UniProtKB/TrEMBL annotation:
The gene is rfaG. Pfam families: Glyco_trans_1_4. This is Glycosyl transferase. One of its GO terms (molecular function) is transferase activity. It comes from the Bacteria. It comes from Cellulomonas algicola. Keywords: Transferase. SUPFAM superfamilies: UDP-Glycosyltransferase/glycogen phosphorylase (SSF53756). The keyword Transferase applies.
């Protein structure tokens, strides 16, 4: 592997300082240890609502300002640069797309003509034509989300699948979708986690459950979390609960006010690892719908690395996943399964769970990405 790999432009579907980091930010930071990386923040594929959060975000972008995230993260690598594009967030309208194509064409993206566009968004507004090589990394079935221009996204994706040098999927559901769209050589890179960080946290542990992540109505079945606490098990909620329409779900308020629920909000990664390690069972209470058919939760390996049992609904992406402590249960059994799995594990069980998570690390995944990019220069 050469030491100087080509410049990489990461086209994300999330802002860099998002409250909860996912694969986009982790991969960009990892690549920036080996190459010059420009991280282009989200084009805002979902049409904004009249909520305060959406209006503030639109105003910031219109003024060319970044911010609004609540992430407390390690320092940004010197070779990583963040760009906040100005676009019209109504991508379903042809006139808006024409204007956006002009706006995106003006973005200052040094090195793209000799480097790699690594896009998590199917809608690129022509950036793929500026790049020497293109990687399409699909981590969600974006076209199934509410308030997105599904037809425009699918059209853009079909074009991208024709021209991309490499196509990567984060789950079996996403991979099946991409193959159905006509691309046969899809690489399956299931989501991974910062397992070293979560395995290294050493704090006293007691029987209680944790859910780490956004309380997003399109993903999370809040009723399952209520079932857990109604059965007498303590629950820690780590992450935001006022975005993506969560405030319109009355059950969220009931959950947050429950006497057995503790909310810790957004935490720096090291503090989150300590909170998770102090629990005994990690929850993945996801609804089963068109969107979650393509979701592989990063938190599965975070929980396992911390030594927790994991109770999840039977997501398609996890049905072939075997790991000690991972249980896939139907919604009717979710609360009972969480209680049953909440005992404090002995050292042998802890070691088995951590070993199962060890190979699913960002260290290994970034090495895969570096090798892929480096291979373009071979």
């Amino acid at each position: 592997m050469t030491l100087g790999i080509p410049p990489v432009v990461v086209l994300s579907t999330a802002d860099f300082d998002s409250a909860v980091w996912t694969n986009k930010q982790h991969l960009a930071v990892g690549l920036a240890r080996h190459a010059d990386v420009t991280y282009v923040e989200s084009f805002g594929l979902r049409a904004p609502t009249v909520s305060g959060a959406d209006l503030r975000r639109v105003a910031r972008r219109a003024a060319g300002r970044r911010g609004g995230g609540q992430r407390t993260a390690p320092s940004r690598p010197d070779r990583l640069r963040v760009v906040s594009p100005r676009v019209v967030p109504f991508h379903g309208a042809a006139a808006a797309r024409r204007l956006n194509a002009q706006l995106v064409r003006r973005l200052d993206l040094p090195g793209l003509d000799e480097g790699v566009l690594w896009t998590f968004s199917p809608m690129t507004y022509g950036l793929e034509r500026r790049a020497r090589h293109v990687v399409y990394h699909s981590v969600d079935l974006l076209h199934t989300q509410p308030r997105v221009p599904a037809a425009a996204l699918l059209d853009a994706e079909r074009h991208l699948l024709r021209v991309a040098d490499r196509v990567v999927a984060s789950s079996t559901g996403v991979a099946a979708h991409l193959r159905a769209q006509g691309r046969d050589d899809v690489l399956l890179w299931e989501n991974v986690a910062d397992v070293e960080l979560f395995a290294g946290a050493a704090v006293p542990r007691r029987p209680r459950a944790v859910f780490a992540g956004n309380l997003t109505p399109t993903k999370v079945d809040v009723g399952l979390l209520l079932d857990v606490v109604d059965r007498g098990l303590e629950l820690v909620l780590a992450g935001p609960h006022e975005i993506d329409g969560a405030g319109r779900d009355g059950r969220v308020g009931v959950l947050l006010s429950h006497p057995r629920v503790t909310t810790v909000g957004n935490l720096p990664p090291d503090r989150l690892a300590e909170v998770v390690a102090g629990c005994t069972v990690g929850l993945v209470p996801y609804a089963l719908n068109d969107y979650t058919a393509g979701v592989f939760p990063l938190k599965v390996y975070e929980y396992l690395a911390a030594g927790l049992a994991v109770v999840s609904t039977p997501l398609a992406s996890l049905r072939e996943t075997t790991a000690p402590g991972l249980s896939l249960v139907e919604a009717s059994r979710f609360g009972a399964a969480a209680v049953a799995a909440s005992g404090v594990p002995d050292p042998v069980v802890l070691a088995d769970r951590r070993a199962a998570a060890a190979s699913h690390s960002w260290t290994a995944r970034v090495a895969d990405a570096v090798a892929l990019v480096d291979g373009f220069g071979a």
